[in-house]
Structure formats: structure tokens, C-alpha cells
Write a structure and sequence with these properties.
The chain has about 200 residues and is an alpha/beta fold. It has two domains: about 1-30, no CATH class; about 35-190, 3-Layer(aba) Sandwich (Rossmann fold), CATH 3.40.50. The protein has helices spanning about 45-55, 80-95, 115-120, 135-140, 160-165, 180-185, and strands at about 1-5, 20-25, 30, 35-40, 60-70, 100-105, 125-130, 145-150. Strands 6-5-4-7-8 form a five-stranded parallel beta sheet, with helices on both faces. Helix 1 (about 45-55) links the parallel strand 4 (about 35-40) and strand 5. Helix 2 (about 80-95) crosses helix 6 (about 180-185). It is globular and about 60 Å long. The termini are far apart. Residues about 10-15 have low confidence and may be disordered.
């Protein structure tokens, strides 16, 4: 890998995997590896989320999965950050997925400060996968990041999974990876999903 010098402030160097850049203006060494960020609530982690992770890892060198922690718990957020993290770890290990890390980030009451808040808590990234979250898409785009919205794969949403869990049917099990089904049943977490 070569190191080039010159001012590159404000230039997009992502994707050039053979050259590092030393900015002559700010004296920062830029490593242009593609580092992705996928942020979500994952309540619970489902097959659509898994598909986003798999596709993202075909495009980036490393993917940081951020488990968002709400300011206050609601019925939409039955699973703890640790439970969601374990669901994701077990699923990705079970599918042989590599090249990721998992981080938790507490929400803040100020949307305008959210991107800076995330940047303080996770390593550098240059590509953001937003799912269908319009707010995250707008915030990270306005902050200058490359944002890749993901379609809703297989028509699955965590809301639909939780609704099926509330109805005590087995339909939810088809929407989440086997590792998540096993984890929820083993830990008795179905009772945390309220109407």
C-alpha cells in the first residue's frame, strides 16, 4: 500500500483500497477502507436484518452494527440491548458471517446532535446503511456520509414479528433466524412482548 501526500480535505477517497492519503493540510492519515454502519433497534433481529448485513458485507471491508437503545422503554422495545446483541451475535455466527462488530448507542433527545453522538461512540465509518428509517437517512446524509437505504427484505418488520408473538402463534418463527427463535425460547423472552 502506498501513501500519497497532498490536501484531500473534503474529497471522497473511499473505495481506493491500494492507497492511503496523508493530508498535507491537516496532517491526518486517511485509510480509505470501506467501513459501514448499520444502525437499528432490532426488536428483534429478523431475516430482513440478516439480509441487509450479508449484502452490506459484500460492499464494505467491515460493518459496525449499532444497537440503538431508546431513551425510555416502550412496548416497541421489549428486549434489552444485551439480549439484542446476543441475538445478532448468535445469528451471524450460525451463518458464518465475519467482518462485523456490534456496538450499543443510547439515543439522545436531540436529533440534530445524533450523528455526532454516534461518531463519538463508534470507530470511524464512511458508509451508512439505514434500512427504511427516514430520520437516520436524512441525518447521516446531511452530515455528509454516503447513505445506502435498504429495502424491506421479505416484507418483514420487527413490528410484525412482535405482533405475531403477541398472538401466541408460530408465524413469528418464520420471520426470524433459527438462532433468534432458539434464544427467545430458551430465555423465555416471549413474555416480554406486550400488547
Amino acid at each position: 500500500m502506498t501513501i500519497k501526500q497532498g490536501c484531500i480535505c473534503g474529497r471522497d477517497i473511499a473505495g481506493n483500497k491500494t492507497t492511503k492519503f496523508l493530508c498535507g493540510h491537516c496532517n491526518i492519515l486517511y485509510d480509505p477502507k470501506m467501513i459501514g454502519l448499520f444502525i437499528g433497534r432490532f426488536q428483534p433481529f429478523h431475516k430482513g436484518h440478516l439480509e441487509v448485513v450479508k449484502r452490506a458485507l459484500k460492499e464494505v471491508d467491515h460493518l459496525m452494527i449499532v444497537v440503538a437503545v431508546p431513551l425510555r422503554k416502550t412496548k416497541k422495545d421489549p428486549f434489552s440491548a444485551q439480549e439484542r446483541k446476543e441475538m445478532i451475535e448468535r445469528t451471524l455466527a450460525g451463518h458464518g458471517v465475519k467482518g462485523f462488530s456490534i456496538h450499543t448507542v443510547n439515543d439522545i433527545p436531540n436529533d440534530d446532535g445524533y450523528v455526532g453522538h454516534v461518531r463519538q461512540l463508534v470507530p470511524n465509518f464512511n458508509v451508512v446503511y439505514t434500512g427504511d428509517n427516514e430520520l437516520n437517512r436524512r441525518l447521516f446524509t446531511e452530515a455528509g456520509f454516503t447513505v445506502i437505504p435498504s429495502e424491506r427484505f421479505f416484507g418483514i418488520s420487527s413490528t410484525k414479528v412482535r405482533e405475531d408473538m403477541q398472538d401466541k402463534g408460530a408465524g413469528w418463527k418464520k420471520m426470524v433466524p433459527d438462532e433468534v427463535v432458539e434464544y427467545i425460547e430458551k430465555k423465555g423472552l416471549g413474555k416480554k412482548v406486550e400488547r
